[in-house]
Amino acid sequence: MEEVNKMEKYYIEMPENELLRIQNNIWEHDYVDAKLKTAKQKLSIKIALRGNQLRKHKKKSYHIIFDKPYFMDGQHEIHLNAEYNDPSLMRNKLSFDFFESIGVLAPQSVHILLYINDVCHGVYLQLESFDQYFLGNRKLPDGTIYYATNDDANFSLYTPDHKLKLTLEDGYTKKYDYQNDSSLKRLLIAINTFPKEKFDEEISTILDVPKYLKWLIGVVCTQNFDGFIHNYALYHNSKSELIEITPWDYDGTWGRDLHGRPLEHNYIPIEGYNTLTARLLDCGKFRLMYGEFLQEVLQTQFTEQYQKPLIEKLYNSIRPYIHKDPNMKDNAATFDDEPQYILRFIQARNMYMESKLNGLINK
């Protein structure tokens, strides 16, 4: 197939023994010195495997830190996601672009073709890191950033298996600290100790509630099962003094789970779940706000009409390179079916949520 909108190529060079070491010792977190060459520049980098279950796959995902120069396109770190379990290779990007379209901060992403020591490893998704430079590139106020690093990040005092957490902030890692920030602790205390009347009154002084509800719509529409208690970051905006939320790792979406298996369109309820969401939707004014936001999205961005040209554009940009991907070259037929699979999911999911909307608003 003729190349259309040529995909950028990344060439990484490192000692072969170091490459074998990080690929064979998958649970090590050591970084290896390497070189990265793109169409625009050459850089010295540090590279390591990234992800949890991702490390077990043949096609690895990588975390890159730029050394010399310190930045590439305004970024100090990037992630190269293998998208191993996603037969479309597009769900992550489709999700992040969807979040952006409904007013939620999300990482920029672009597909690239990765070569390591002159061997093609296939199509990867380059993801922007959510850090202080992410904020700076968007001219956003500085602020502390927390990562939800495991499923204990459920906004509760208890783990998902109902055990009391050892500390209030279990499940979170502070990625970037701005002025000894303790906003996360304040949020968790409010969620778990404030009585209903005080919570309904005070939460808007801690959390950017409209942006959280829009994020919730993004998770519910794309149906990311882990998205409610994992796969997100929190940003404490130093100007508004409110916490905002952003998505992360959305390959298990749009009708498939994180293993790439089909997921029924009605698997996630319209209200989603987690302790913070439950407390917000228990408040009439926030539930009404959520319903109004959701109704608009179901009529605009989360429709076949809106998403079809975006899906087709992504498909057409990736398709010429499928034969170069060792993980995908024998699965081209499945890849070719994925645009219609995703569109059928959107239609079914949209109809399901429309059918539940009145019950949510009038609860």
From TrEMBL:
Pfam families: CotH. Keywords: Capsid protein, Virion. It comes from the Bacteria. PANTHER family: INNER SPORE COAT PROTEIN H. This is Spore coat protein.
